[in-house]
Amino acid sequence: MPSLKFPYLRFRTNPSRDPLRRQSFQRPVIPLRLFGPTGYIDTHALVDSGSDGTVFDHELAEAVGIDWKKGAFHEVLSVDGSRLPVQVSSVSYELEGHGFLIDAGFARLPYFKAVLGENGFFDRVIVSLDYGNNRVEVKI
FRET partner for 14 with CA separation of 20 to 30 A, picked from 84, 91, 92, 93? Predict the structure, then answer.
């Protein structure tokens, strides 16, 4: 079983606007390649164990020719309780040469261009989130 290891990505913040007064914070964000009819695009995705599904920003879909508007419409709840409209379509993505064909949501995402959740990611791999050692490990 291949094991892929990625460092958490660090993001700078404005301490005066951060409730914890942090200079920066880190998140489990990993690189991936999204495929579509007209090619592929390299991006980064938040690894989110609290997300029920995998969601990509509609701008990524458009960049690779995925007609995301034809997908089945759903509303999902975000962590703040707001409803996020998504269109679900089949899509393929790759992590360092390991490909996945899944049904994913496409929506306007506010922070990250992709979110890897239970369906489409955690149900296909073994994930270790090691905040203390600043590492995400994905076993495929």
Answer: 84
